[in-house]
């Protein structure tokens, strides 16, 4: 047998074991020899044993089940089935990944395990009846952003907003945004670019799925000093839904039963200070915005702003505006 055929036989033996064997579906040497015939390759059992030893020397984890119904199978894989299920769930839950791309990615994930576990993955696949973007340029945008960060370059792009006709139209009459990208983050089911805007001299965030015609420029990034002590986790915690707002140190009086809500939102490193019976106080830095007020309103009477006075007044105006929209004289 030619040397090239020997190499092919070993490679196809590895392929067969990876795709068609599992602990519950081991392959005998005779099984492997038969399956090699699908690739116009021949082998006897002794040859299969030898090739398996070669694969073990290559550090492929080929295990053997003894006794009746025994055979060879792959033990440890790059991804275990629970890990693949986790990845499938993440892909399905991601709003920014289109339905078509979701199906493509799940098919690729199935190739990372054997055909039996792949069927289990497929049985667990549900393309949720939830919003899925139709914009697949996000993958190109992410690639351009990573390239710009790696090469220390600024990026340019058009930035869109949705109209009542469900059309994404460019802001600023199609003028380009030029910023220095420093990070990508995932928040509230969306991908965001965290960048330095030199014109505004500040850190800004942009929805990646709303970017169009992204390109890497020849300009070097600026704003490095702004990111020297930048904490992305803290930025995400204080910025509700990645909407803007002015930063403020806010004191909240909360009922004890919503301690978990506070810790989930702001992290376990904050201090919960016991207050009057059944309550605690917490001091937090937040971006004061309608989204922050909406979060407070959703919790209801279990939480109250106690300071500063200016933020309390902003919240009163926010609630008053909502109530005015439901006044009798404004009913249709």
Descriptive overview:
The protein is an alpha+beta fold and 332 residues long. Helices cover 39% and strands 25% of the residues. The protein has helices at 3-20, 29-36, 45-57, 81-93, 99-110, 115-123, 137-150, 232-238, 259-266, 290-299, 309-324; strands at 62-65, 71-74, 153-162, 168-170, 177-187, 190-197, 202-207, 211-220, 246-255, 273-274, 279-288, 303-307. β3 and β4 (168-170) form a beta hairpin. α1 packs across α3 (45-57).
The first-to-last residue Cα distance is 87 Å
Overall morphology: elongated
Low-pLDDT residue spans: none
Q: Give the averaged pLDDT, no decimals.
A: 84
Topology as a string of helices (H) and strands (E): HHHEEHHHHEEEEEEHEHEEHEH
Please state roughly what percent of the residues sit in beta strands, choosing from under 5%, 5-15%, 15-25%, 25-35%, 35-45% or over 45%.
25-35%
**In this structure, how is the largest beta sheet organized?**
6 strands, antiparallel
Beta-strand segment tally = 12
Gyration radius over CA? 28 Å
Q: Pairing-aware structural class of the strands and helices?
A: alpha+beta
User: Helix proportion of residues, in percent?
Assistant: 25-40%
Helix count from the secondary structure assignment: 11
Task: Summarize the topology.
Elements: H1 3-20, H2 29-36, H3 45-57, E1 62-65, E2 71-74, H4 81-93, H5 99-110, H6 115-123, H7 137-150, E3 153-162, E4 168-170, E5 177-187, E6 190-197, E7 202-207, E8 211-220, H8 232-238, E9 246-255, H9 259-266, E10 273-274, E11 279-288, H10 290-299, E12 303-307, H11 309-324
Helix pairs in contact: 1-3, 2-3, 4-5
């Amino acid at each position: 047998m030619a040397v090239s055929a020997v190499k092919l036989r070993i490679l196809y033996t590895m392929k067969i074991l990876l795709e068609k064997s599992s602990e519950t579906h081991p392959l005998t040497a005779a099984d492997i020899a038969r399956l090699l015939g699908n690739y116009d390759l021949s082998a006897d059992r002794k040859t299969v044993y030898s090739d398996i030893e070669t694969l073990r020397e290559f550090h492929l984890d080929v295990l053997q089940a003894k006794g009746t119904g025994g055979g060879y199978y792959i033990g440890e894989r790059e991804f275990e089935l629970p890990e693949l299920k986790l990845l499938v769930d993440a892909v399905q839950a991601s709003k920014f990944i289109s339905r078509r791309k979701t199906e493509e990615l799940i098919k690729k994930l199935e190739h990372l395990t054997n055909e039996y576990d792949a069927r289990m993955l497929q049985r667990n696949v549900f393309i949720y009846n939830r919003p899925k973007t139709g914009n697949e340029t996000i993958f190109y945008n992410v690639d351009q952003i990573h390239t710009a960060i790696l090469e220390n370059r600024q990026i340019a792009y058009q930035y869109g907003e949705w109209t009542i006709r469900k059309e994404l139209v460019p802001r600023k009459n199609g003028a380009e945004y030029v910023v220095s990208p420093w990070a990508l983050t995932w928040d509230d089911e969306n991908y965001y670019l965290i960048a330095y805007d030199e014109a505004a001299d500040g850190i800004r965030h942009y929805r990646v799925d709303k970017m169009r015609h992204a390109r890497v420029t020849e300009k070097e990034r600026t704003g490095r000093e702004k990111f020297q002590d930048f904490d992305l986790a803290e930025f995400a915690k204080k910025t509700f839904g990645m909407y803007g707002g002015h930063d403020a140190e806010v004191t909240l009086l909360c009922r004890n039963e919503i301690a978990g809500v506070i810790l989930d939102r702001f992290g376990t490193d904050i201090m919960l200070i016991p207050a009057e019976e059944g309550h605690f106080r917490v001091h937090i830095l937040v971006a004061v915005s309608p989204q922050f007020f909406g979060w407070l309103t959703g919790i209801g009477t279990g939480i109250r702003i106690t300071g500063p006075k200016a933020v309390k007044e902003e919240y009163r105006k926010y609630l008053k505006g909502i109530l005015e929209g439901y006044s009798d004289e404004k009913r249709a």
